[in-house]
Amino acid sequence: GAGVSQSPSNKVTEKGKDVELRCDPISGHTALYWYRQSLGQGLEFLIYFQGNSAPDKSGLPSDRFSAERTGGSVSTLTIQRTQQEDSAVYLCASSLIGDEQYFGPGTRLTVT
Amino acid sequence: GESVGLHLPTLSVQEGDNSIINCAYSNSASDYFIWYKQESGKGPQFIIDIRSNMDKRQGQRVTVLLNKTVKHLSLQIAATQPGDSAVYFCAEISGGSYIPTFGRGTSLIVHP
Cα(B84)–Cα(B88) distance, rounded to whole angstroms? Predict the structure, then answer.
């Protein structure tokens, strides 16, 4: 079946603008994760959704970052007033609870 | 060998050799460990996992070894192929959590 998809694949934005990144998880997966990956680095956890529970936002780096998951499916990561240090690849993953995560291809964000 | 800054630790091998990629984890309470492979421009892909009640687990051409005494994890790839060239990440999860902590990654380069 279809894997995790993310859009856009690439996004270039000017410093100070807001951006929205979208993730479509695998159907039926109750858990959804957002990560950030900077060049040559590992994955930095941002936020975790599980079913109807309150999301774990402990990884969000500042209040400019927010995410929502509508209807337990599609998720949107929003970054307000983007800064150059926000440039990175943003990865989404979904899973059944406690099971392996399936990652999307990522969105490469460049803030100029 | 390992280098600093933006450069990942790199392992270069010849096609057909066996590869060993190492990972030191930080949390003695971690009880679930996962290896991921990330090819250029793609999201990480699950390779193999191991729980803390085991010290070895084998898959197809891959073996994961866990040494809890020294908090060390390794991934062995037998008969390495050019298609194995990628960045490999280990991840650890502590009991009761569903959020993995990722290592920095090792770049594997397989020369034909």
Answer: 10
